[in-house]
Amino acid sequence: MERHAMRAASIAALAPVVAIAWTLALPQAAQGADYLRGSQIDQPVEAPPMFGGGRFDWSGFYFGGGAGVSDTKFKMDEGLRVLANSAFRNSDLVAERDMGSYIDNQPEKSDSSAQFFGIVGYNYLFDDVVLGFEADYTRSGHSYQSKIPPIARRSSLQSGSVYDWSMAPNQAAKLNDYATLRLRMGWAYGRIMPFGTIGAALGRFNTTSTIDADIAIVTNAGQVNETRVRAVGYPLQVGSTKNNTYAFGLSAGAGVDWALTDNLFLRAEYQIIRFAEVEGTTVTVNTARVAAALKF
């Protein structure tokens, strides 16, 4: 009887120890079960930051395309005035008259529409500095046509000669398409990269720059027996119409790239291109555009 009482007392004394041991062992057992299950447990995946934050590798090759709204300005230069003097070079009119001065300054013309383009480039990454080269191609089709009315005058020269003359100026240009090759400089802020560009441009144009001229020699001007005889070699046309003529220019711009994934980024950009004078017309293109590109 005494022996059974002592055994009960020993078991009762062990109960707190067993409880404590069980409490300590339970978490370890749970961790062991988790370890055994391994890949069967879905671990939460942290999504990449959408704006800034983290680090993104902007280096490598990329290509893509986009659309924008372009405003192309056409400004007439001195080409027609030079042609006007050339048109009357076979007469003594140019000795006393600047025939180009009869052509008034023409207002700047503009044409605008949506345009589509493609891009290809390569970036180098130096810490947070991004340097790269990019080429793009844009189909345009913007054009203008001058509206200069025909000019007709009677001119009396100091030599006593009197001429009735006329000229019809015609100036037009169409920007078919253009391409640029630019240096890009950017600063990487995670998945956002603001950048600037500068480079060269090449445009393909169709142009018309002509003057149709005519002269009549007047004798007995203002009298009843006045006569008019067309001068030898007139009427004539000077100038030409040219298709697929090229002009170089300069390009500059600024924008921002936003990496949606490791291989896809979006872009918003402003670009300005100024072409050199082509057949009497200077052309400037302003474009606001967006694009998407794949990066490798």
Summarize this structure as a short list of keywords or feature phrases.
296 residues, alpha+beta, eight-stranded antiparallel beta barrel, 3 helices, disordered N terminus
Mean pLDDT: 86
The biggest sheet, with number of strands, parallel, antiparallel or mixed sense and barrel status, is: 8 strands, antiparallel, barrel
Q: Give the terminus-to-terminus CA distance.
A: 86 Å
Compute the number of helices: 3
- The ordered string of helix (H) and strand (E) elements is HEHHEEEEEEEEE
- Shape descriptor: rod-shaped
Judged by helices, strands and strand pairing, the structural class is alpha+beta
Task: List low-confidence stretches.
Answer: 1-41
Notes on the structure:
This protein has 296 residues and is α+β, with helices and mostly antiparallel strands. The chain has 3 helices and 10 strands, in the order αβααβββββββββ. The protein has an 8-stranded antiparallel barrel with strand order 1-2-3-5-6-8-9-10. Strand 2 and strand 3 (129-145) form a beta hairpin. The N and C termini lie far apart (86 Å). 27% of the residues are buried. Residues 1-41 have low confidence and may be disordered.
